[in-house]
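Lay summary. Proteins are chains of building blocks that fold into shapes, and those shapes determine what they do. In this project we predict the shape from the chain. Here is one chain we studied, written as its sequence of building blocks.
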Amino acid sequence: MPHNRFYSPERFEKSQEIILKDDELKHFKVMRLEVNDTCEIVNGMHQLAIAEVKSSQKSQALLVVKKVIKKPPPLTNILCIAFLKAKKLELILEKATELSITEFWIYKAEKSEIKEIKKNQIERFEKILISALKQCGRFDLPKITFYQSVQKLPKFKGLSFYGDTSENAPLFYSLLKGEKPKLTLIGPESGFSKKEITYFNESGFMGVKLSEFILRVETAAITAASLMSHASIKYQPL
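And here is the predicted shape, written in a compact code that computers can read:
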């Protein structure tokens, strides 16, 4: 991925003018691009624009789209995470975006140490998603949604899993074959409540083992994201 890739949340068309401001302008200034230089812009909506710098000012940079490249939507892989301390959530969001997670559902578990996600934290999370999008080279920006309990999560049409530390739980990766949408639910540091586990089992979730060891929440989330990502890769025959 080239360093001169920027983000703009709008649909691209050839000859369209794009204005960079705020964080993207800071990135632009760091890259020291000049008039007539070429760069890339991604919009998080499956499009990449090849653009040319038309002007560069103190308050903004003006780019002109020369070519638009499109990619089809990726397979749906949703990572559902309990409320955690901001630093841990930030790490998970960054790494799981790099691992092609398409949506993040963040919910308040009964044993969540954190009971509220603040507005400034949400803004910080969204910036992290954009930064990871640009860094890893993907075209789609993951969506992030917040819920007040597992019972408030939307009904999901696909394969639904939750991290299960039971000795007889099946291995997660063995159940990931196929192209069905997938959702994996990771609990808080203190684990799920009995009420939540009952709800999972009654709602069609499958308890799965991510490792033979007990994993920290952030390790479990990144492991789940990695396994779902790997299972979604379409390999070409030699």
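What the prediction tells us: The chain has two domains: 5-70, 77-232.
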